[in-house]
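Structure in, sequence out. Go:
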């Protein structure tokens, strides 16, 4: 009987130990594998992002400066036109007739002057033998001078008439891309009193970017030596959609005053448009450098969460437990990394992704990734 009891006891102990091992295995299986990594520590240039807009280097209106019926429009909207290219023609009948009248007046004035000059020369010879009076000679000289003045006036009228006639052919004042024409052939251009804008040409070969910064940021720039320093050459620009080429601007202008209503200062930079990808009016962001951080702590931006308290990360402690950690952050770096200014140490392990799968105090099986 005693042997039987011992056997039953042994069986029960075996079953109990097997159950414990099973629970331990199940518990181990419930610990998830979570990817973690450590921050990147690097020396970086600090940037602050500002919204900006591009402006064409040169923008000129094509204007009609004479009055008449518009006869032709010799371009398509959006065309690249060259300086001097004929864009419009305006009915020149009135101006051609005006030139003919001016040229006729000039011929008359020349003839009158020629006659007066000969008469004056003859009287000068006659006075030498006392054949005429000095008064007659002076009168002849006055007549000649008067006709000479009429000749000059007639020449000016001819030049003015030629200029007006030439303006009946409207040419491109600069090379660039032209907008829609504001008037169609057949419309009347009343440009003699005040020039009429017919289209606009944009020279986009070079552009400027304009943006405004806070006065406090300007003070930081002054500490760096102002916009003439090398740090403000090749300032990076970003666009809403990635373009095939990277673009940078050189700062060259700062407004002489701070806008009091906003507390901001206008800055401008120049850039080349070698690939004709940029247009006047495009929106961009300017990554303005303002200092450097020799031991910057950088983490993956996707690993940062946001709640009512601000920014946070899940850090993994020495016991492989997840710790909710509040952090303070700076600017984005190289598109995917974020500067952490407070709350994280260089050797801390943090959860890189799957933020919704972990919680504070949860035990995990960390898998280090790079």
């Amino acid at each position: 009987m005693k042997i039987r009891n011992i056997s039953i006891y042994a069986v029960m102990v075996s079953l109990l130990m097997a159950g414990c091992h099973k629970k331990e295995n199940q518990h181990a299986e419930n610990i998830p594998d979570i990817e973690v990594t450590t921050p990147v520590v690097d020396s970086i240039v600090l940037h602050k992002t500002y919204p900006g807009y591009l402006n064409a280097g040169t923008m000129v209106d094509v204007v009609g400066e004479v009055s008449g019926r518009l006869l032709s429009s010799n371009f398509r909207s959006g065309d690249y036109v060259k300086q001097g290219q004929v864009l419009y023609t305006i009915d020149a009948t009135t101006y051609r007739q005006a030139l003919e009248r001016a040229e006729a007046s000039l011929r008359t004035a020349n003839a009158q002057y020629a006659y007066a000059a000969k008469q004056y020369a003859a009287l000068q010879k006659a006075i030498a033998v006392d054949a005429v009076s000095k008064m007659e000679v002076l009168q002849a000289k006055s007549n000649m001078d008067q006709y000479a003045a009429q000749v000059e006036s007639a020449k000016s009228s001819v030049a003015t008439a030629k200029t007006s006639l030439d303006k009946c052919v409207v040419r491109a004042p600069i090379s660039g891309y032209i907008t829609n024409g504001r008037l169609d052939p057949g419309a009347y251009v009343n440009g003699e009193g005040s020039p009429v804008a017919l289209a606009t040409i944009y020279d986009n070969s070079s552009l400027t970017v304009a943006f405004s910064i806070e006065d406090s940021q300007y003070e930081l720039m002054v500490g760096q030596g102002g916009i003439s320093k090398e740090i403000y050459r090749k300032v990076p620009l970003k666009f809403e959609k990635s373009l095939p080429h990277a673009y940078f601007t050189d700062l060259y202008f700062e407004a002489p005053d701070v806008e009091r209503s906003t507390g901001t200062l206008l800055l401008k930079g120049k850039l080349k448009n070698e690939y004709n990808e940029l247009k006047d009016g495009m929106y961009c962001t300017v990554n303005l450098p303002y200092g450097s951080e020799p031991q910057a702590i950088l983490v993956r931006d996707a690993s940062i969460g946001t709640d009512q308290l601000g920014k946070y990360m899940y850090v993994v402690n020495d016991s492989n437990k997840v710790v909710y950690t509040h952090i303070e952050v700076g600017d984005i770096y190289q598109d995917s990394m974020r500067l952490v200014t407070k709350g994280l140490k260089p050797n801390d392990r943090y959860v890189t992704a799957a933020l919704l799968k972990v919680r504070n105090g949860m035990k995990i099986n960390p898998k280090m990734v790079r």
